[in-house]
């Protein structure tokens, strides 16, 4: 029985004909457009969200040389592609590429692996262990075609038939007389894929580029493709029919000029619309921006709606300006409604503001420990206390509560700074002088911030 397994392994190796040496080149896929054009994709294409991106050759493609042709990056909307046809052809291209490169070597490796396992059975004494080794080899063979595009499925089935005979003998040797069902079935013969297309001629790649340009929804991409077409036609290395080349070049140049004129018109439309919308938003002119939006959409219609990739974000920006203008209009209306209340409050706090403004120079001296006369400190403390009492008695508008709180804190800290400085002068303690300095610094900071906030609130709201 061991001899029969060894003989089977030798026969298996004889059944394997290995042909290596093919140089691996980039696979030429096809992206099928909805108009039926099969565009060459040099290597795999990538579908990202609602876009498909791939590299297409424009000009001569010499697959035999292995040299990369002149490639152009293509970015198309996914809905411009016939995906069933594209996906089916991709499988064919992968299968053909696999056959031309790794298939035979992989099959040789498989048969060598199986033969090695079967040869090792000769040295296994336990019949049950020999049977298990043979069954593992069978499972490996049975599943291999499924993972390798069904390559050499017929050969695998023939090998499996011979292996099953050897396994039957091994079962008998192991004393297994009961019927055993092997649940690992062989892979069915895969459906025949569509034939892989030949490498395109230079003229065919140029025609494909023109089809892609027509399917593109981005003007810059269209112009880039058309320029590449003109360059390919002018390249002496690309053999194309002269009459066809002349008419095609003329059409491409005309299309580039038309695209450029449209780009210029849309660029001017975008610049004018955004400029006007920005100016009107700063004035809170809601109706004016609505007119700009309406004018933009009408101008787009007159131009044939040829730049949706530009107009869509342009309209979105104008709508943002419109929203900002509406918010600013509401803020200004609210501000005007509250102006009378603001002015009453401003008049009420004017004495306190004047006193705190006058106190900034003495507070600066206290902050720097630069010294103050005793009479100045006593007089200032009394006036600051009075200002604090008046500010504390006021009820500010809701919008100015935070500002009023800062003013009150500034007045209180100023009073504390003056009194603490006076105590330092009397006691001669330097720590008391530093405490007064800290209070003076805090008062000055709060007063400055309160002034800024008060001025901002009293001014007409502006667009930010």
């Amino acid at each position: 029985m061991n001899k029969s397994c060894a003989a089977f392994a030798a026969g298996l190796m004889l059944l394997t004909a290995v042909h290596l040496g093919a140089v691996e080149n980039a696979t030429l896929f096809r992206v099928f457009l909805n108009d039926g054009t099969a565009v060459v994709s040099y290597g795999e294409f990538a579908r990202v969200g609602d876009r498909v991106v791939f590299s297409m050759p424009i000009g001569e493609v010499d697959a035999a040389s292995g040299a990369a042709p002149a490639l152009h990056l293509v970015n198309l909307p996914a809905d411009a592609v016939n995906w069933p046809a594209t996906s089916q052809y991709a499988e064919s291209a992968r299968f053909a590429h696999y056959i031309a490169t790794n298939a035979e070597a992989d099959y040789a490796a498989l048969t060598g692996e199986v033969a090695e396992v079967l040869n090792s059975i000769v040295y296994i004494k336990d019949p049950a262990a020999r049977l298990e080794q043979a069954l593992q080899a069978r499972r490996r063979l049975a599943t291999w075609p499924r993972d390798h595009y069904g390559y050499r499925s017929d050969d695998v089935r023939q090998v499996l038939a011979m292996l099953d005979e050897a396994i039957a003998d091994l079962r008998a040797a192991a004393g297994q007389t009961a019927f055993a069902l092997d649940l690992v079935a062989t892979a069915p013969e895969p459906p025949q894929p569509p034939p892989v297309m030949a490498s395109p001629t230079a003229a065919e790649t140029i025609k494909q580029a023109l089809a892609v340009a027509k399917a593109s929804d981005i003007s810059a991409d269209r112009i880039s493709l058309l320029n590449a077409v003109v360059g390919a036609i002018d390249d002496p290395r690309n053999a194309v029919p002269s009459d066809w080349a002349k008419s095609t070049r003329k059409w491409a140049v005309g299309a580039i000029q038309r695209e450029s004129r449209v780009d210029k018109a849309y660029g001017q439309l975008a610049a004018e619309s955004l400029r006007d919308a920005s100016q009107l938003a700063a004035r809170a002119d809601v109706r004016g921006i609505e007119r700009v939006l309406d004018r933009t959409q009408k101008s787009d219609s007159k131009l044939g709606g040829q730049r949706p990739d530009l107009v869509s974000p342009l309209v979105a920006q104008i709508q943002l300006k419109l929203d900002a203008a509406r918010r600013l209009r509401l803020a200004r209306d609210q501000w005007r409604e509250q102006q009378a209340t603001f002015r009453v409050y401003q008049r009420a706090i004017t004495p306190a503001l004047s006193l705190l403004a006058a106190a900034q120079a003495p507070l600066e001296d206290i902050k720097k420990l630069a010294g103050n006369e005793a009479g100045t400190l006593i007089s200032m403390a009394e006036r600051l206390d009075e200002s604090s009492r008046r500010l504390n008695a006021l009820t500010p508008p809701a919008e100015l509560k935070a500002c009023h709180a800062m003013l009150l804190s500034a007045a209180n800290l100023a009073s504390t700074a003056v009194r603490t400085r006076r105590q330092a002068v009397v006691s001669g303690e330097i720590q008391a002088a530093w405490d007064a300095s800290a209070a003076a610094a805090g008062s000055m900071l709060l007063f400055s911030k309160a002034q800024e906030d008060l001025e901002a609130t009293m001014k007409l709201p502006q667009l930010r």
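The chain is about 65% helix and 5% strand. The beta strands are 28-32, 38-42, 46-48, 51-57, 71-77.
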